[in-house]
Amino acid sequence: MKREIKTTKDGSKTLFINELNENYHSHNGALQEAEHVFIKNGLNLINDCEINILELGFGTGLNVLVTINEYLKTDKNHIINYFSLEKYPINESEINDLAYFELFDNPEFKNIYQKIHLAEWEKPVEITKGFHLKKIKCDFFDLKDIILPKINLVYFDCFGARVQPDLWEKPLFELVSDKMSVNGLLTTYSSKGSVRRILQELNFKVEKKQGPPGKREMINAVKL
């Protein structure tokens, strides 16, 4: 499907799919959304010494980058193992045009951005000391066959239910839940009532949180 670069309201860029009339990120701010949903209401709520993150899906790599940015602010006495699923990787031209490293003050981020995108699929790569990334090229429903350590943080960042409703139904959430540890956290930009009910049926404690700019609410869910 054809994609084009668009600039969101916070100055960061996103990809837009014409056929689906769908952005990869919020048009109100790609960077702000990633930091609010996955850092403020995700990574910053986890205190484990070793954090295993599962992301659905890799997309533009922005969520990996904001996670590394936050990780580098810490004392780095912990380890992050980041597993990201993606069926349709973006191309080199799109990577260069998005240029997300320009959003950060750290002069090392151009190199980090390149390492993220040059990392070989299916192979764990240490992007920076203590931060390991494994990109997995697959359909999300192949998750059942993927061997992972117990996941304590899920970035559920699928395309919206309007264009891919099957990604917001019980079968995929069951697969994700099976990979998670007790007390693991799932965070997503969605606040759909059907999603809340599915997660509650799967024995999650669900909490509505303030959404990112342009969105009233989002969901946090802890596996009980």
TrEMBL record:
InterPro entries: MnmC-like_methylTransf (IPR008471), SAM-dependent_MTases_sf (IPR029063), tRNA_MNMC2 (IPR047785)
Gene Ontology MF term list: oxidoreductase activity, acting on the CH-NH group of donors; tRNA (5-methylaminomethyl-2-thiouridylate)(34)-methyltransferase activity
Alphabetical list of Gene3D superfamilies matching this protein: Vaccinia Virus protein VP39
Residue ranges constituting the MnmC-like methyltransferase domain according to the UniProt record: 135-223
Pfam families in the record: Methyltransf_30
Protein name: Peptidase
Organism: Chryseobacterium taiwanense
Lineage: Bacteria, Pseudomonadati, Bacteroidota, Flavobacteriia, Flavobacteriales
